[in-house]
Amino acid sequence: MATESKLTKNLYTDITRLKLLNKSDAEVKFLLLTSPFTGDEDDDDLADKKREEYSITGQIYPNSEIYRERSYAIEIILTKTFPLDPPKVCFITPIYHPNIEEKGDFCNDLLVKTAKWTPKTSLVEIVKIVVRHVDEPDADNPVRAALFFYVSCFVHIYVQAEYVIVGRILPNSDIFKESAFQIEIKLTSSYPLEPPEVRFLTPIYHPNVTKDGKFCHALLLKTSRWKPGTKLVEVVRVIVEHIDNPDIDYSINPEIGREYLDNRVEFNRKALKMVEQHKLPRN
Q1: Which distant-in-sequence residues (6+ apart) come within 8 Å of 19 by Cβ?
Q2: Which of 24, 28, 130, 141 sits a CA distance of 20 to 30 A from 61?
Q3: How far is CA 8 from the centre of its chain?
């Protein structure tokens, strides 16, 4: 087993290489903010450092259409068993992402000891893993499956002062989990005082969705439960939950609502048929 001094020196070398990711020609960009080393220690000082939990913080700069709009501060925590065990990566900057827990923990099988982790993985490679999987979400293993929402388009309509967000939801119920569904969230000039308008672009047979795709729910009615502080994350959550569990009290299509209550077998048959006709990939 490597000595404490060797482990610490290797870490110092690894962090030095990590700093090079701030160069303009780097494959991915990473700005180091803090590390266990102040930058003015010599080799003897490093050898004397006590091996505890090390924390490295920095900013990543994703490249995808949505996430490239800003940088994200992350923390890489190296435990006493590093590099035998993988580090823990946590997002300090809040981010809405299927592979990142609400509290910020980043989850990917490359950073799990029992999966693909190898002790030779460098800090540079770890940062590349994080950036790559922020840009390319792992839809097969989301840690927030019910909230998975892949944004494919964000449009600002200047003339009407509207914002349009287009993305895909991934329901979990037996019928609707067979497909992804593309939806449009329109934020009018009166948003957030008034709720957004939600429309399904992918056809769906559902009591709370009209033939032309309009989604109806109490939360999205100005006179009901809508509050200006409601976040878009909550809007997406409501959509997914009520696609999986139809709200018959707000059936915008009464015939389908009655069929859902009185003849579930027939409803399931029609809903599944439409899913099969218009299904979209879930990744």
Answers
A1: 32
A2: 141
A3: 34
Alpha helices in 95-227 (DSSP H): 123-135
Cβ contacts of 25 within 8 Å, gap of 6 or more: none
CA angle 29, 35, 39 (to 5 degrees): 100
Catalytic residue among 90, 107, 153, 216: 216
Any domain includes 140: no
Complete edge-to-edge strand list for the sheet that includes strand 162-169:
149-157, 162-169, 181-187, 197-200
**pLDDT tens profile 104-132:** 999 887 787 766 788 889 999 999 999 99
Please give the residue range of the domain that contains residue 53: 4-135
Structural contact between residues 89 and 104, judged by C-beta atoms closer than 8 angstroms = no
- To the query of whether residue 216 is one of the catalytic residues in this protein, the response is yes
- Is 149 in the same domain as 83? no
Predicted confidence at residue 155, as pLDDT, reads 54
Rounded Cα distance between 202 and 93, Å, is 33
The verdict on residue 283 lying in a domain is no
Per-residue model confidence (pLDDT) at position 128 = 94
Domain end position, chosen among 99, 115, 135: 135
**Is there a single domain that holds both residue 129 and residue 157?**
no
Query: Per the omega criterion (within 30 degrees of 0), is the bond before 203 cis?
Result: no
